[in-house]
Design brief:
With 412 residues, the protein is of the alpha/beta class. 36% of the residues lie in helices and 17% in strands. It has 14 helices and 15 strands. Strands 1, 2, 3, 4, 5, 6, 7, 8 and 9 form a nine-stranded mixed beta sheet that branches. The chain is globular and about 65 Å long.
């Protein structure tokens, strides 16, 4: 998940990817999310979770501001999305200091909250840097969904680690995007919970059935070795280059926008095909045409804590998977022998060779499906929501007790 993802690379998923609005009478406060990722960039963890929250209450998704090259009156743009989420973008003039920018955004948000009657709301953070524009508000609950170790990413903003420590003090709950990240964050917050990447099984399961091959992939020969995701500093470019050189008989299909690295850095062998970013709804049709799916991640600071969502998505699509030794892939997928792990080009090539015939392994298929039956975004959302409701009820009870104690004191 990059810190500077450009907007409008991929469109939002349609209503078919999320549950219908709940008719439950259980009250839930409005939810305001502060994010460093554009909603319309890549459909991933924030979209999966917040689309589900939006079925039970109002959800605002506050993005980083859009800076105009000329003078413009500061204002908010509200973008309605099919899933019920409202995307909020502040438009600001060029030349503001970061302090003035944050103050302007805070003022715009306060005015919008007043206009739309946002009084009981939860703050949900993906980036600690958003504290600069939100610390003076009074949410009923504060959540930090820490999906990555952002301070290790390329172009991470100065002061991010300091703001994260401030957010730890404010947050009642900390969720993490994987177990490795949890092991780090639980040392910094007493109420941290691991929620690793999950799946929409029905969506990716479409790839197990015959589907039309997309036009830009149809002419590529087999065997096809695929990867989808953001192409940035986490991709092991040299591994891809060596694999393509060592195995000219294989075709490497790379799907995803190129971010924070130059196109000139990418290997350009004839058997590597860069197809660009695709809509979330299109991914099963591409996966259906692959013979093996890969996680070509480099071993660097930006990948130390990642828990790739694509791991269970590949498996749900029925594709054999080969990965570099990312800790949250090794555990549990490698340890359960659901995904093959390889640390160098020679071993990776041998693992792909094995994976090319793995679809015929009925035991692997059975074990994979048994594991996938234990995870889903619906389950992740429900477990998060239960924790949040518990904290809200505890706070309400505590406030009632304090009020009662104060009344007794004043009466005595």
């Amino acid at each position: 998940m990059s810190l500077n993802d450009p907007a409008q690379v991929n469109s939002s998923a349609s209503d078919s990817t999320i549950p219908a609005r709940s008719t439950s009478s259980e009250s839930f406060p409005d939810l305001v999310c502060f994010a460093h990722l554009h909603w319309d960039f890549v459909w991933q963890r924030p979209q999966h979770l917040l689309s589900r929250f939006a079925q039970h209450g109002r959800v605002l998704y506050v993005e980083d501001p859009f800076i105009h090259p000329d003078q413009v009156e500061p204002h908010l743009e509200i973008k309605e999305r099919q899933n019920g989420v409202k995307v909020v973008v502040a438009h600001l003039p060029f030349g503001l200091t970061w302090q003035d920018s944050d103050a302007a955004q805070a003022k715009l948000l306060a005015e919008y909250f007043e206009k739309e009657n946002f009084k009981q709301y939860i703050f949900w953070y993906y980036t600690p840097m958003a504290l600069n524009k939100s610390r003076d508000f009074r949410p009923v609950l504060t959540i930090y969904d820490c999906m990555d170790e952002l301070a290790s990413f390329k172009f991470a903003p100065a002061g991010l680690r300091e703001r994260e420590q401030e957010l730890f003090k404010k947050a009642e709950l900390v969720f993490t995007g994987g177990y490795t990240l949890y092991e780090s964050k639980k040392l910094q917050h007493p109420d941290a919970y691991p929620f690793p990447s999950s799946i929409d099984k029905d969506h990716f399961g479409q790839a197990r059935q015959p589907m039309a091959d997309p036009a830009d992939q149809a002419g590529i020969a087999h065997p096809r070795i695929g990867f989808f995701g953001v192409v940035d500093e986490r991709l092991d470019i040299e591994l891809l280059r060596q694999l393509a050189t060592n195995h000219p008989e294989w075709q490497f299909v790379i799907i995803g926008p190129v971010v924070k690295i130059s196109d000139d850095q990418l290997p350009r062998q004839q058997n590597i095909h860069y197809l660009g970013g695709k809509d979330y709804l299109e991914l099963p049709s591409y996966l259906q045409g692959w013979d093996v799916a890969t996680l070509l991640f480099a071993d660097n600071e930006s990948t130390k804590f990642i828990s790739p969502t694509k791991t269970p998505e590949y498996l749900a699509a029925g594709r054999p998977v080969v990965s570099t030794p990312i800790r949250d892939v090794v555990r549990p997928y490698g340890e359960l022998d659901l995904v093959q792990i390889a640390a160098n080009a020679d071993d990776f090539g041998r693992a792909i060779d094995k994976a090319l015939v793995q679809t015929q392994d009925t035991d692997w298929r059975r074990r994979t499906d048994e594991y996938l039956a234990t995870i889903s975004w619906d389950l992740t959302w429900q477990q998060m929501r239960d924790l949040m409701l518990d904290r809200l009820q505890a706070k309400t009870a505590g406030q009632a007790s304090e009020t009662a104690d104060a009344s007794l004191i004043s009466a005595s």
